[in-house]
Amino acid sequence: MEKYVIEGGVPLYGEVEIQSAKNAVLPLLAAAVLTEGRVVIHKCPRITDVLNMVQILEELGFATSFLGGDLTIDGAAAANHEIPSALAKELRSSVFMLGSVIARFGRARIAYPGGCDIGLRPIDLHLSGLRRLGVQINEEGGYIDCVCSRLTGAEIVLDCPSVGATENIMLAAVRAEGETLIRNAAREPEIADLANFLNRMGARVYGAGTPTVRIEGVPSLRGVEYTPIPDRIEAGTFLIASAMCGGELVLKNADAENLTSLIHKLCEISCKIHADNGKIEIQSRGRVSPKLVETSPYPGFPTDLQAQMMALACICRGSTVVVENLFETRFKHVPELIRMGADITVRGRSAFIRGVPSLKGADVFAGDLRGGAALTLAAISAEGQSSVSDLSHIDRGYSAFEFKLRALGARIRRVRI
Ligand code: EPZ
After folding, report:
1. Which of 19, 43, 73, 352 is the least buried, fewest Cβ under 10 Å from its Cβ?
2. pLDDT tens track for 190-224
3. Is the peptide bond before 124 cis (omega within 30 degrees of 0)?
4. Which atom of ligand 1 is nearest to the CA of 190?
5. Which residue owns the Cα nearest ligand 1 atom 38?
């Protein structure tokens, strides 16, 4: 196991290059299943979730190579429809692959991905959507067996705008006969990125990014080269780091359009932010509490920045209420922040934070990916020394996290325990 050792209390200055979006790359890798051609993902981040997805592709018979930032996938020899259960459990987003594996091979088998660190994470909307497209699904013994001789387009109404369910249904519908409508679809930028990728492959997807996505099925899809959109959650993490630690940052390869809810909040607490042609500059000029942070589906405040924003609220002047509306147990970072001197009370899905002048160094434990990032920011801003374990969570979604932070002046190092 590994941990960060951090000496806190220094401002952050400099430039940081934002990685391609983890939550865009993962569905693109699922989409690569749809073609026998060659797919190249440029600027692909070397993070654990991506490496696990690549391993699943190899188990399905795809040839892959990862040179520099280019991930190449060759699907000519692929023939296996069973997603390995150990990997499926490791990586919940492997469930996205059901749609593309069924579309490619006519069948799919996957172990039921259990709940995980942030909530129950049900997949009922994924399965009901696939059933509407004509997939026979048998759930037995912890496995999901899918069979479909012919996918047929349908109108699907999602009970909630689920990102994964929208993507899973898109990945099957592109090869269905006829037209599919997905109503109450998720509107996250990663959905539009997946649609752009699929359309480059020869698909016909319209309306991605709006509540209604329309797909006209096509008989085949070709290989494609593609560069995913920047990671808005990594960018948001660095913006919040700047607001917490002080100093001035320039984020390169960052799209402010996809971060309007966070940027609005940071300006409220008196950060100065300027964005143009793929860059975001931030100057932290004090910290007045943001009063209310309530997560909701895009374009609302992202749940993936809730923990980081809570860490910031802990050292703002005044009180803040944080409400987590998407996941049931996404407050694992609260007891760890309290260990650092934060003043937080939780009632159900709401956390009541009273700002303190600064946090104090402590040994803290990450319970999930974004909570780990939040605790790292808290430690960098705190007085004294902290450790953050275990880094396997952070490594799932942030590439070279400590290197980027160190280059900005943070005193952070990774040590094996
Ligand atoms: C995606 O997860 C992201 N992961 C998550 O990011 C992100 O937090 C989430 O969307 C919300 O934005 C990837 O894209 C790989 P959902 P997903 O289905 O698709 C309910 C990170 O840190 N729901 O939109 O699993 C569910 O319970 C990760 O990068 C159902 O009820 O999220 C939740 O309340 C964490 N039935 C809500 O929808 C279903 O079948 C949103 O979940 C599916 C979901």
Report:
1. 352
2. 999 999 999 999 999 999 999 999 999 999 999 99
3. no
4. 14
5. 162
**Torsion from C-alpha of 413, 21, 19, 269, nearest 10 degrees:** -70
Q: What is the pTM of this model?
A: 0.98
Task: Flag whether 211 is marked binding.
Answer: no
Atom of ligand 1 nearest to the CA of 120: 27
pLDDT band of 115, cuts 50, 70, 90: low
Q: Which two tokens stand for residue 10?
A: 């220094």
CA of 63 relative to ligand 1 center, distance in Å: 29
